[in-house]
Amino acid sequence: MNRPTVLAYYFPGWHPDERLSARYGEGWTEWQLLQNARPRFAGHRQPRVPADGYLNESDPGVMAGKIDLAADHGVDAFVFDFYWHDDGPFLEGALDRGYLGAANRERVEFALMWANHDWVEIFPADHGNHEVLRRGPVGRAAFDAMVDHVIERYFSQPEYLRIDGQPFYSIYEIGSFIEGLGGVDEARDALEDFRRKTIAAGHPGLYLDATVWGFGVLPGAVTTAKPEDLIRTLGFASASSYVWVHHSDISAKAFPEVEWDAVADDAFAAYAEYAAALSVPLIPNVTVGWDSSPRTDQNLPFEPVGYPWYPVLDATPAQFERGLRRAVELLDGQRLSHPMLTINAWNEWTEGSALEPDTERGTEYLEAILNVLGTATSAVETNVA
Question: Tell me: the pLDDT tens digits for 64-112?
Fold first, then answer.
């Protein structure tokens, strides 16, 4: 089969942002949460320390180092978590100043996943309800403003990820998207307009990708929760997965630490069902791990009371490599002309899922990508048993 394109999700929470500074103090980033993390049970790997230190990703020189590290280890593109609320963009400095300012940016392509979920107060989280700071659903005016900005600012860049010439754009929460637009028909009209504007800007089309975890929490106005129905109606070209815990009820498993194989089996069982049911290609995910405990109040007991008070999933590099091989095997069965897989994540440090080296495991997760997939110019291994 063709070598899958390796897409690493990139969380842009590691640079000062004026909204965060206004709420938490000048220069605040989630690095502070990571630095304050403590072991919550015997054998818990916290705090995790970035091998390169607590760097400002909006510095083009810092981002250049990340780009080289990714390219040298088989990562083809960063898929930036892209935040756009009713009042415009948020956390855009990593992309706008860091990546786009990096002299070597051509080594790794980039794309956007609109992270259209509620932004809630979990910095850190207590055991109570979390204040919603910004709503994920947006109306048509805000959506149109986002579309115009994305086409002009990002689709025009030569490094933007394209499939058959069409810019790749992913939407994280389909339910929030439909809710904000006012219904399925309105959402379809907005996406058709997005496509028309993209073509008018000189592109052959728009490659829309749907993250397929949120269909069970669609707004009441939606009469079906079947992913295939909505994907076909809304015109998506593929379906993707963001993280394994979206497909495994880890809250029903062991606490405080969940067995890696059990979560992996749940995720790949879900992927097999999606691949069989959907009329579009499935983009499977391989998750480095899961540990959102840095986002919890370190002074409170570590208890299973809901996100971010979740069980910990700490994959070894060898387990991560097995996950990559399973993803390749799944893709091989689909026989796609453009196979892709996602990795969660390049740098979700406060959710315990980072390809970036830490002081304990170094580049071992990145080396697993090379072991299975090589770089973009290398042939994928055919033996994935």
Answer: 999 999 999 999 999 999 999 999 999 999 999 999 999 999 999 999 9
Q: What are phi and psi of 286, to 5 degrees?
A: -125, 125
For residue 82, the one-letter residue type is F
pLDDT of 238? 96
What distance in Å separates the CA atoms of residue 297 and residue 299, rounded to the nearest whole number?
5
273 is written with which tokens?
A: 């069902």
For residue 365, give every residue at least 6 positions away whose Cβ sits within 8 Å of its Cβ, in sequence order, or none: 288, 317, 320, 354, 355
* Domains of the chain, each with CATH number or no CATH: 5-373 (3.20.20.80)
Give the residue among 297, 296, 291, 302 at the shortest CA–CA distance from 345.
Answer: 291
Name the pLDDT band for 32 (thresholds 50, 70, 90): very high
- Spatial neighbors of 229 by CB under 8 A, at least 6 apart, are none
Average pLDDT estimate for 327-344: 94
In 10 A of CB 168, how many CB atoms? 27
pLDDT at 352 over 60: yes
pLDDT band with cut points at 50, 70 and 90 for residue 384:
very low
Distances (CA, A) of 20 to 16, 55, 205: 7, 17, 36
Q: For 221-246, give the secondary structure using H, E and C.
A: CCCCCCHHHHHHHHCCCEEECCCHHH
Cα–Cα nearest to 330, from 4, 108, 80, 16: 4
